[in-house]
Amino acid sequence: MKRVALVTGASRGIGAAVARCLAADGIDVAMQFRESAEAAEAVAEQCRSLGANAVTLQADLGSKLSCAALKEQLDRLQWTPNLIVHCAGLAHYSLLEDTDEQAWDDLMNVNLKGAYYLAREFGSGMRWQRWGRFILMSSLWGETGASGEAAYAASKGGVNALAKSLAREWASSGVTVNVVSPGAVDTDMLAALDEDDRARLCREIPAGRIGKPEEVAQLVRYLASEESGYVTGQLLGLNGGWHM
Protein backbone atom coordinates (compact mmCIF):
# COMPACT_ATOMS: atom_id res chain seq x y z
CA MET A 1 0.00 0.00 0.00
CA LYS A 2 1.19 3.49 -0.85
CA ARG A 3 2.03 5.30 2.37
CA VAL A 4 1.34 9.02 2.62
CA ALA A 5 2.35 10.80 5.80
CA LEU A 6 1.17 13.93 7.54
CA VAL A 7 3.85 15.11 9.97
CA THR A 8 2.99 18.00 12.26
CA GLY A 9 5.60 20.36 13.62
CA ALA A 10 7.78 19.37 10.67
CA SER A 11 9.74 22.58 10.24
CA ARG A 12 12.31 21.74 12.92
CA GLY A 13 13.48 19.34 15.62
CA ILE A 14 11.89 15.92 15.90
CA GLY A 15 9.22 16.69 13.28
CA ALA A 16 11.83 17.61 10.66
CA ALA A 17 13.87 14.48 11.46
CA VAL A 18 10.74 12.33 11.13
CA ALA A 19 9.85 13.91 7.78
CA ARG A 20 13.33 13.24 6.39
CA CYS A 21 13.40 9.70 7.72
CA LEU A 22 10.04 8.79 6.17
CA ALA A 23 10.98 10.46 2.88
CA ALA A 24 14.13 8.33 2.75
CA ASP A 25 11.80 5.31 2.70
CA GLY A 26 9.92 6.72 -0.29
CA ILE A 27 6.93 7.96 1.72
CA ASP A 28 5.31 11.16 0.46
CA VAL A 29 5.24 13.72 3.26
CA ALA A 30 2.78 16.53 3.96
CA MET A 31 4.49 18.81 6.44
CA GLN A 32 2.42 20.98 8.78
CA PHE A 33 3.94 24.11 10.24
CA ARG A 34 2.46 27.00 12.18
CA GLU A 35 4.84 29.93 11.65
CA SER A 36 8.15 29.00 10.00
CA ALA A 37 7.24 28.66 6.31
CA GLU A 38 10.83 29.12 5.16
CA ALA A 39 12.17 26.49 7.56
CA ALA A 40 9.41 24.05 6.58
CA GLU A 41 10.15 24.52 2.87
CA ALA A 42 13.85 23.88 3.49
CA VAL A 43 13.01 20.54 5.12
CA ALA A 44 10.57 19.75 2.29
CA GLU A 45 13.34 20.33 -0.23
CA GLN A 46 15.53 17.88 1.70
CA CYS A 47 12.70 15.34 1.52
CA ARG A 48 12.37 15.85 -2.23
CA SER A 49 16.11 15.33 -2.66
CA LEU A 50 15.59 11.91 -1.06
CA GLY A 51 13.11 10.98 -3.81
CA ALA A 52 9.79 11.65 -2.06
CA ASN A 53 7.04 14.13 -2.83
CA ALA A 54 6.69 16.77 -0.13
CA VAL A 55 4.34 19.68 0.48
CA THR A 56 4.17 22.25 3.27
CA LEU A 57 0.88 23.34 4.82
CA GLN A 58 0.27 26.06 7.37
CA ALA A 59 -2.18 25.27 10.17
CA ASP A 60 -2.85 26.07 13.81
CA LEU A 61 -3.46 22.68 15.38
CA GLY A 62 -5.18 24.27 18.36
CA SER A 63 -7.98 25.49 16.09
CA LYS A 64 -10.81 23.27 14.89
CA LEU A 65 -11.36 25.45 11.80
CA SER A 66 -7.66 25.44 10.92
CA CYS A 67 -7.42 21.66 11.23
CA ALA A 68 -10.50 21.27 9.03
CA ALA A 69 -8.87 23.60 6.48
CA LEU A 70 -5.72 21.46 6.63
CA LYS A 71 -7.79 18.42 5.67
CA GLU A 72 -9.45 20.38 2.85
CA GLN A 73 -6.05 21.42 1.47
CA LEU A 74 -4.89 17.82 1.38
CA ASP A 75 -8.14 16.73 -0.26
CA ARG A 76 -7.64 19.33 -3.01
CA LEU A 77 -4.13 17.99 -3.56
CA GLN A 78 -5.61 14.46 -3.65
CA TRP A 79 -3.36 13.43 -0.80
CA THR A 80 -4.97 10.96 1.60
CA PRO A 81 -2.67 10.44 4.61
CA ASN A 82 -2.70 6.97 6.12
CA LEU A 83 0.20 7.78 8.42
CA ILE A 84 -0.15 10.63 10.94
CA VAL A 85 2.77 11.67 13.15
CA HIS A 86 1.86 14.43 15.60
CA CYS A 87 5.16 16.05 16.59
CA ALA A 88 3.96 19.63 17.04
CA GLY A 89 3.99 20.73 20.63
CA LEU A 90 4.42 23.61 23.04
CA ALA A 91 6.30 23.67 26.35
CA HIS A 92 5.89 25.98 29.33
CA TYR A 93 8.10 26.31 32.40
CA SER A 94 6.61 27.73 35.60
CA LEU A 95 5.17 26.67 38.91
CA LEU A 96 1.47 25.91 38.68
CA GLU A 97 0.47 29.01 40.63
CA ASP A 98 2.43 31.09 38.11
CA THR A 99 0.86 29.36 35.10
CA ASP A 100 -1.94 31.56 33.84
CA GLU A 101 -5.03 30.17 32.17
CA GLN A 102 -3.92 31.26 28.69
CA ALA A 103 -0.65 29.34 28.96
CA TRP A 104 -2.56 26.28 30.19
CA ASP A 105 -5.03 26.53 27.32
CA ASP A 106 -2.31 27.02 24.71
CA LEU A 107 -0.56 23.80 25.77
CA MET A 108 -3.77 21.81 25.93
CA ASN A 109 -4.92 23.13 22.56
CA VAL A 110 -1.80 22.22 20.60
CA ASN A 111 -0.50 19.18 22.46
CA LEU A 112 -3.76 17.40 23.32
CA LYS A 113 -6.66 18.99 21.46
CA GLY A 114 -4.52 19.02 18.31
CA ALA A 115 -4.24 15.23 18.58
CA TYR A 116 -8.03 15.06 19.00
CA TYR A 117 -8.63 17.20 15.91
CA LEU A 118 -6.20 15.11 13.85
CA ALA A 119 -7.95 11.91 14.95
CA ARG A 120 -11.34 13.37 14.04
CA GLU A 121 -10.23 14.65 10.63
CA PHE A 122 -8.10 11.72 9.46
CA GLY A 123 -9.13 8.67 11.50
CA SER A 124 -12.15 7.75 9.40
CA GLY A 125 -10.09 7.79 6.20
CA MET A 126 -7.55 5.38 7.65
CA ARG A 127 -10.27 3.11 8.97
CA TRP A 128 -12.02 3.13 5.59
CA GLN A 129 -8.74 2.06 3.94
CA ARG A 130 -8.38 -0.54 6.69
CA TRP A 131 -4.77 0.46 7.17
CA GLY A 132 -3.21 3.29 9.08
CA ARG A 133 -0.62 4.41 11.59
CA PHE A 134 -1.42 7.15 14.12
CA ILE A 135 1.68 8.10 16.10
CA LEU A 136 1.65 10.69 18.86
CA MET A 137 4.70 12.35 20.35
CA SER A 138 4.52 12.54 24.14
CA SER A 139 7.21 13.07 26.78
CA LEU A 140 8.80 11.41 29.75
CA TRP A 141 7.06 14.08 31.85
CA GLY A 142 3.70 12.75 30.70
CA GLU A 143 4.59 9.52 32.51
CA THR A 144 6.30 10.85 35.64
CA GLY A 145 5.07 14.42 36.06
CA ALA A 146 7.51 17.29 36.41
CA SER A 147 8.00 20.06 38.92
CA GLY A 148 7.63 23.38 37.13
CA GLU A 149 5.98 21.76 34.10
CA ALA A 150 2.58 20.68 35.41
CA ALA A 151 0.67 22.02 32.41
CA TYR A 152 3.02 20.39 29.90
CA ALA A 153 3.03 17.08 31.80
CA ALA A 154 -0.77 17.11 32.05
CA SER A 155 -1.15 17.68 28.32
CA LYS A 156 1.20 14.82 27.51
CA GLY A 157 -0.46 12.51 30.05
CA GLY A 158 -3.69 13.23 28.20
CA VAL A 159 -2.02 12.30 24.91
CA ASN A 160 -1.02 8.94 26.42
CA ALA A 161 -4.57 8.16 27.55
CA LEU A 162 -6.07 9.30 24.24
CA ALA A 163 -3.73 7.02 22.30
CA LYS A 164 -4.62 3.96 24.36
CA SER A 165 -8.33 4.66 23.91
CA LEU A 166 -8.03 5.16 20.15
CA ALA A 167 -5.93 2.01 19.86
CA ARG A 168 -8.85 0.04 21.29
CA GLU A 169 -11.37 1.77 19.01
CA TRP A 170 -9.40 1.42 15.78
CA ALA A 171 -7.58 -1.91 16.09
CA SER A 172 -10.28 -3.92 14.30
CA SER A 173 -9.95 -1.56 11.31
CA GLY A 174 -6.24 -2.24 10.84
CA VAL A 175 -5.15 1.10 12.30
CA THR A 176 -2.51 1.14 15.01
CA VAL A 177 -2.12 3.95 17.54
CA ASN A 178 1.09 4.36 19.51
CA VAL A 179 2.97 6.94 21.54
CA VAL A 180 6.66 7.78 21.39
CA SER A 181 7.77 9.22 24.73
CA PRO A 182 11.20 10.87 24.51
CA GLY A 183 13.26 12.06 27.42
CA ALA A 184 15.89 14.76 26.85
CA VAL A 185 16.38 15.30 23.11
CA ASP A 186 18.58 17.93 21.51
CA THR A 187 15.89 20.29 20.18
CA ASP A 188 14.86 23.90 20.75
CA MET A 189 13.16 22.86 23.99
CA LEU A 190 16.62 22.40 25.51
CA ALA A 191 18.10 25.52 23.93
CA ALA A 192 17.85 27.50 27.18
CA LEU A 193 20.21 25.12 29.00
CA ASP A 194 23.75 26.39 29.42
CA GLU A 195 26.78 24.13 29.26
CA ASP A 196 26.74 23.37 33.00
CA ASP A 197 23.02 22.50 32.91
CA ARG A 198 23.53 20.16 29.97
CA ALA A 199 26.45 18.45 31.72
CA ARG A 200 24.35 18.04 34.88
CA LEU A 201 21.51 16.58 32.84
CA CYS A 202 23.81 14.10 31.11
CA ARG A 203 25.04 12.88 34.50
CA GLU A 204 21.44 12.06 35.45
CA ILE A 205 20.89 9.94 32.33
CA PRO A 206 22.37 6.42 32.50
CA ALA A 207 23.36 6.58 28.83
CA GLY A 208 25.39 9.68 29.70
CA ARG A 209 24.11 11.88 26.88
CA ILE A 210 21.17 13.72 25.39
CA GLY A 211 19.25 12.00 22.62
CA LYS A 212 19.16 13.03 18.96
CA PRO A 213 16.03 13.82 16.93
CA GLU A 214 17.16 11.24 14.38
CA GLU A 215 16.99 8.53 17.04
CA VAL A 216 13.37 9.41 17.74
CA ALA A 217 12.70 9.36 14.00
CA GLN A 218 14.06 5.82 13.69
CA LEU A 219 11.55 4.58 16.26
CA VAL A 220 8.77 6.37 14.38
CA ARG A 221 10.04 4.73 11.21
CA TYR A 222 9.42 1.28 12.68
CA LEU A 223 5.98 2.21 14.00
CA ALA A 224 5.11 3.52 10.53
CA SER A 225 6.11 0.28 8.83
CA GLU A 226 4.11 -2.70 7.63
CA GLU A 227 5.99 -4.83 10.15
CA SER A 228 4.58 -2.96 13.15
CA GLY A 229 0.97 -4.04 12.61
CA TYR A 230 0.75 -5.99 15.90
CA VAL A 231 2.08 -3.08 17.96
CA THR A 232 -0.73 -0.84 19.15
CA GLY A 233 -1.72 1.01 22.30
CA GLN A 234 1.91 1.19 23.40
CA LEU A 235 3.90 3.96 25.05
CA LEU A 236 7.47 3.55 23.86
CA GLY A 237 10.12 5.34 25.91
CA LEU A 238 13.27 6.75 24.36
CA ASN A 239 15.26 8.27 27.19
CA GLY A 240 18.67 6.64 27.60
CA GLY A 241 17.51 4.82 30.73
CA TRP A 242 16.47 8.00 32.51
CA HIS A 243 13.12 6.36 33.31
CA MET A 244 12.65 2.59 33.42
Automatic annotation (TrEMBL):
Domain of life per record: Bacteria
An example Gene Ontology molecular-function term: translation elongation factor activity
Residues annotated as transmembrane: none
Occurrences of domain Ketoreductase (ranges): 3-188
Protein name stated in the entry: Elongation factor P 5-aminopentanone reductase
Keyword tags: Elongation factor, Protein biosynthesis
Family, as annotated: Belongs to the short-chain dehydrogenases/reductases (SDR) family.
InterPro entries, A to Z: KR_dom (IPR057326), NAD(P)-bd_dom_sf (IPR036291), Sc_DH/Rdtase_CS (IPR020904), SDR (IPR050259), SDR_fam (IPR002347)
